[in-house]
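To illustrate the input format used throughout this study, we show a single complete record. The first block contains the structure-token representation of the backbone; no residue identities are included at this stage. The design step must infer an amino acid for every position from geometry alone.
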């Protein structure tokens, strides 16, 4: 999508920006958390663009799948047509002089400095299993077996994974580096037999939860502020393997709180609370309680997703 954006942006002036700075957000409506992301963006006063393969959305703007440079260019033109015109300052007016002196010759313009070379792109981050749970990351079912961790099968089409019912044995996958070569393609016809062999079929959200729980070694996930207050949006499913999570969830359901306050009130350690919040953020049942300005400034131009003019 980034390459298509750069191609479409040739005739426009747009730039990528993070979600907090953007005034318009592209929401993947085909993902399992699309509707929740849509509600969050709307409540924050964002202009929302729905990214979807379907034809019906609840937003003013739509970016259809598959994403093409032509589709992005059309969307940019639509957003620019809705942007308010930029007022030009009136030129200053001078009183007429009795006799105007002869104009001095204009100085020769200084030569423009040579453009600085673009910095080398940063090396890609080591991929983890959670990266393959994103929509479109996998083209079909795959099997994974690493070290002493139990084998699992990811079935993105059905939104499930095949494996045992307990989650603690899957914790090694939370920090393991998983390359595409580690993923063995599976014939879809074999999935029923594999479900029986490996222990059953479970929602991918449970796998995302355990990967979020063990993926950051007691630190908060990137992009989140440890000084923010966090809240649960609904009562989550608590796993019997983690008995202290019930007390953590009970404290968080009472209202937004700092991580340190949640730890003190629940009797859990700060690392346990942080891991639990990471897991809840990963599956969309928790969010930071961000203050919304009571009188926000009007938008000064169209913005697309994480694009900023």
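Output of the design step:
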């Amino acid at each position: 999508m980034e390459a298509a954006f750069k191609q479409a942006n040739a005739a426009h002036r747009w730039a990528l920006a993070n979600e907090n700075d953007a005034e318009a957000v592209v929401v993947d409506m085909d993902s399992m958390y699309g509707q929740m992301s849509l509600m969050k963006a709307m409540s924050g006063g964002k202009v929302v663009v729905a990214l979807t393969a379907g034809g019906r959305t609840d937003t003013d703007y739509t970016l259809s799948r598959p994403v093409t440079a032509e589709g992005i260019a059309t969307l940019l033109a639509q957003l620019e047509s809705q942007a308010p015109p930029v007022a030009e300052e009136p030129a200053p007016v001078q009183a007429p002089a009795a006799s105007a002196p002869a104009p001095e010759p204009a100085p020769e313009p200084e030569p423009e400095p040579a453009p600085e070379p673009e910095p080398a792109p940063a090396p890609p981050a080591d991929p983890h299993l959670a990266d393959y749970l994103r929509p479109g990351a996998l083209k079909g079912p795959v099997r994974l077996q690493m070290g002493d961790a139990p084998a699992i099968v990811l079935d993105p089409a059905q939104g499930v994974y095949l494996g045992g019912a307990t989650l603690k044995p899957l914790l090694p996958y939370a920090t393991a580096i998983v390359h595409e070569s580690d993923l063995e393609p599976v014939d879809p016809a074999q999935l029923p037999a594999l479900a029986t062999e490996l222990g059953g079929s479970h929602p991918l959200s449970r796998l995302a939860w355990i990967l979020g729980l063990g993926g950051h070694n007691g630190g908060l996930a990137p992009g989140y502020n440890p000084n923010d207050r966090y809240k649960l949006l609904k009562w989550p499913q608590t796993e019997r393997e983690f008995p202290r999570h019930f007390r953590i969830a009970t404290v968080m359901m009472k209202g937004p709180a700092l991580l340190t306050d949640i730890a003190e009130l629940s009797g859990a350690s700060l690392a346990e609370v942080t891991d639990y919040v990471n897991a809840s953020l990963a599956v969309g049942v928790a969010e930071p309680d961000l203050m919304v300005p009571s009188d926000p400034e009007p938008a000064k131009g169209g913005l697309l997703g994480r694009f900023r003019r």
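Structural context for interpreting the output: The radius of gyration is 26 Å. Confidence is low (pLDDT under 50) at residues 84-97, 299-309.
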